[in-house]
Amino acid sequence: MMQPFRAATGGRVDRTSPIHFTFDGQRCAGFPGDTLASALLANGVHLVGRSFKYHRPRGILSAGSEEPNALVTIDRGAGRITPNLRATQVELYDGLTARSQNRFPSLRFDLGALAGLAAPLLSAGFYYKSFMWPPSFWKRLYEPAIRRAAGLGRAPVDSDPDRYLHRYAHCDVLIVGGGPAGLAAALGASATGARVILCDEQAELGGSLLDEPNTTIDGWPAPDWVREVIATLAGSVTLLPRTTAFGWYPGNLIGLVERVTDHLGEPTSVMPRERLWQVRAGRVVLATGAIERPMVFPGNDRPGVMLAGAARTYLHRYGVKVGQRVVIATADDSAYRAAMDLHAAGMTIAAIVDQRADPDGETVVAARLLGIPIYPGMTIGGTEGRLRVHSAKLANETDIIPCDTILMCGGWTPSVHLFSQSRGRLVFDAASGVYLPSEGAIGACAGEFDLTACLRDGALAGGSEPPPFAIAGIPAMRRSGPPVPAAPHRSAFVDFQNDVTTKDLAIATDEGFVSIEHVKRYTTTGMATDQGKTSNLNALASVAALTGQGIEAVGLTTFRPPFTPVTFGALAGPFRDALSAPVRLPPIATPGAMLEDVGTWKRARCFPRDNETIDTAVIRECLAVRGDAGMLDASTLGKIEVAGPDAAAFLSRIYTGDFTTLAPGRCRYAVLLGEDGFIRDDGIVARLAADRFHVTTTTGGAAFVLHHMEDYLQTEFTSLRVWLTSITEQWAVIAVQGPKSAEHLAPFIPDVDLSTMPHMSVRETRIGNIPIRLFRVSFTGETGFEINLPPHHAQRVWDTLRQHGVTPYGTDAMHLLRAEKGYIIVRQETDGTVTPDDVGLGWTIGGGDFVGKRSLSLPDLKRSDRKQLVGLLPDDPTAMPEEGAAVTDGAEAIGHVTSSYRSPTLGRAFALALVTGGRSRIGKPLQVPTPHRAIGVTVSEPIFLDKAGDRLRARPLPRAAGEPLLAAVDQLAPVARPCGTVQLTVLAPTTRLAIRAGTVAGTAIGLALGVLLPTVPCRSVIARDRAALWLGPDEWLVVAPEGASDLAAQATKAAADHPASIVDVSHRSRTLEITGPRAAWCLNAFCALDLDISAFPVGMCTRTRLGHAEIVLWRIAPEVFHLDVPRSFVPYVWACLEEARLEWTDPEPVMMP
Amino acid sequence: MLLIPCPWCGPRPENEFRYGGQAHVVRPPDPSLVDDAAWGAYLYLRDNLKGRHTERWRHLHGCGRFFNCVRDTVSDHIAATYKPGEAPPS
Ligand SMILES: [Zn+2]
């Protein structure tokens, strides 16, 4: 197909292989290297969109990211529809499908344009004025209508099938902008040996130099010089074209979005569509250039009216002529250069209308010599043409010049958006009338437009002495002064994207808005995705004139991130679907179970058999526990080992009870309060030895309790010699509950007489050869045992017990069984405002001071009319109140239902509730309203079964010993999948000790283990087959080959004379190994640390985060990392790293151009 | 994401840390000797500063230590971090 406006020669497009695209269904041709805008212009298309408010026909204004008009929707198939892309930034590929926006039924004939007739209604502040009455009309009528009429593209509705990645990066120097100044800065910085990243939003680096085929630098045509510089930099500098620096955040953190595959017609599935970079830069060099200002005159928004510099770019970079007959309106010499270049390409320059009274100088003389008519001291007074401009009327009201294109150049505004975001100080430059960064900027961004000076300043900013750059081919040019505002009574567009005119600004100032921030919000100028790129300074000039002040007195509005819109996909990155949150599976697989989310865990709700509903399964499970024995996978319970000579004293200050009196081998229920006296968590405190406790927490509260304990240990109770170690994943837990639980267990636990083991006691013993911690505790009211065992043995023990007739039960049955006994569940019966006494746990409170105790004597916490935990028995035993429902005394709500069940044991419904003064209401009737009726209930004590506790303390019958369990199978078989330049492996298990000790004990332990515990933070020591990793100032991880089972004993013996905590955590985690030249790169997709070998040398180790998981990261060799990952997070971390390394599969895909 | 200098581990990304509220709020050594008003103030009354704020952080996903930090609440600039028990830098 014809491209009638393609110049005969020139441009950087590949003319040998035409490609095709559609715009609003119309098939057009273009070339590789085109943008959608340049290809449309080559086809003579200027009309590309309708404006935001008035639906005015709009054309392409610019050639870059400042484009306010040419917003299009690119359709790459279901879920791949991206609205509001700037056609000037969309790279053309074969088959590209683009649609115009905000028009109905078509771009050329748009009904919404009738809104233009109602323009007075939509002027400044229209939201606030026109649609205020009656208020009810806003939601129903005005807002939907406005949203339909005034808007941009439609958001896609399908799920996005593309991949997105994140990446953390660090550098000494980040250079934003790859034009002449930025490239020179990169050369200068890389020469110093610094780590440098250079990013540029365009497809090609080079910036304005790509528009300069006739300019030479050191004898090279400028585009060739760019090519040579890129080749020089490629080895040492990270070059990121197609990458927008969109935000500057505290600590020199710059957000970049790299568009990886949007320019490809058929992207490979292994590449992410976009990559969000979070770059931590030592310093940032801004070489973001300048944006050409439109002239403000009536009719300046018609299709065919565009920026002069853009016309030059289209000619030199894309070989495209923007029209045939051109009128130029300018206040700056650079437009004369455009005139000459366009003239040389065969376009007619009908006139140059120069706002300045005395245009003069090299370019002006040259234009005159070409015979181009020049109108000094003149502006355009109006334009004509419906879908394309066809004439310009000069402000003298006499000259009407036919044309198909009007080019504008009001001067150049440095692009200071990022600098403004950094909260840098902007300085007003009176000569040019623009704001300049006070520091850190070079080139046009700093107001410097001379190429030699840009290159020199770039090299200096990079940190090197500038070489003598030899430039030829650029004429001397006089720059514009401050923008001259148009007469306010004539409606001329200032902000194209938001449809704001000079008239709107006049209305705003007339109505008393003088602060520029208020004018901005009232008129919407400079807002939204455009952030005033082309409009800001013209708006300031208008407001300055209207209010009779200088531009500098008006001040500048704040620029906000993002510089250009960022997709939600890029922001979400890989954290969606399976990676959105880790799914932690307990160590026991339970096929057929109904699962539910508990915190980050998946737990089994119940185990339905054939044809069973959930309800019937739960009933069966409950009856099994009450009548025989059931077992629950309680592995997700939090567990903390508390060790040290002051452990009992410490726990007595953290929990409500006094644990100094707890004998070794015994357990006690414990309640944890906040300092405000309210219940935060509960659990079992078991004393293993005088100086060692095994403490359990709720499943959801594990991380909080450990953090809470560390807080008091480190900052308040600092004299106590106590250390904490998380053992949640070191031990799986099978809770076996029921009157016959001992009979079922006895055969497997030969060393303990279960019949005499008292309720609330603990034994360290074994099943077969498996070491276990056996608790006799109950959360059901029945005789109960909790077997703590290494997680890789749990499945085998579970399956064996199941074969021996123990019935698995899930969390549903667990909830019901404990409620029959009135045992609370923290965060179900409590909500952060509940004291121990409120739920009948006043008996747990010990004599000494503990966290929260003082608050319990505050008057408000002692009131007798506080909400108290009671039972509710519905008068109709089949009526079940809803959890969360209000409880009323017939007149007002006095509480709420916290738990509600139908009990197979009681043969009726029952509930727990928090009711004002509840204990004084026992025996009295209350009501629980439902949408249909009120359920009558009678208040009872919150215990429904075995009030005396006989079942708990029953002496179970012994049973003859059976066959012991032997070998077990670890579910986590090592997996390895070699691929590409990044290998990922799960290593074989190792023996691991968590050591917490002071310096003296640490030294003794190190000597005994044959590996010194490092004292330098984040460093490791390797000796023979074992290693010690520093994790904290009193914390180490010692790693040795599997089977070094006497390691803990050796360490404990060595520390006998010094307080220390030594906990075997061999089973708590697994080690992943990631190796290869791209190992660090892959880790940095999820880990925010600087993993450069200089910042993270071999031997460095630290706890850190990988996505949502906490890991220990250890560099073994330059290209080898070990990741110590908690068992339940291994699948998540593995999936993250698989995602990160997908793009590095063999053969290594080409990443950078 | 802030870059926070842990007194032990050096500068680390904010996502390894947990905020711990205002620093130097001392728990009364014997709370039973404190009257209700003073205890209430200890529990709930905090500064709400614009500017230089001393606050607690914990290097939760790192060395695990609590420490104190001087941060400007306007600019987010961190002037100093220091170990518990040390006096805030002037
Ligand atoms: Zn640290």
Question: What does this protein look like?
Answer:
The complex is a heterodimer of chains A (1153) and B (90). Chain A has 1153 residues and is an alpha+beta fold. In chain A, strand 46 (893-903) and strand 47 (908-916) form a beta hairpin. The longest helix of chain A has 14 residues, at 136-149. The radius of gyration of chain A is 37 Å and the shape is elongated. The model of chain A is unreliable at 960-977 and 1147-1153 (pLDDT under 50). Chain B has a 4-stranded antiparallel β-sheet with strand order 3-4-5-6, with no helix packed on it. Chain B starts with a strand and ends in an 8-residue tail after the last strand. The mean pLDDT of chain B is 96. Chain A binds chain B through residues 168, 249-253, 278, 280, 423, 675-676, 707, 710-711, 714-716, 718, 849, 853-855, 858-859, 1017-1018, 1031-1033, 1035, 1088-1089, 1102-1105, 1110, and chain B through 1-3, 8-10, 12-13, 15-16, 18, 20, 27-28, 30-32, 34, 36, 39-40, 43, 56, 58, 60-66, 75-77, 84-85. The site of zinc ion (ZN) has 7 residues of chain B, from loops. Zinc ion binds next to loops of chain B.
Q: Hey, roughly how much beta strand do the residues of chain B contain?
A: 35-45%
Number of helices of chain A: 28
Summarize the amount of helix of chain B as a percent range: 10-25%
What is the helix/strand order of chain B?
EEEHEEE
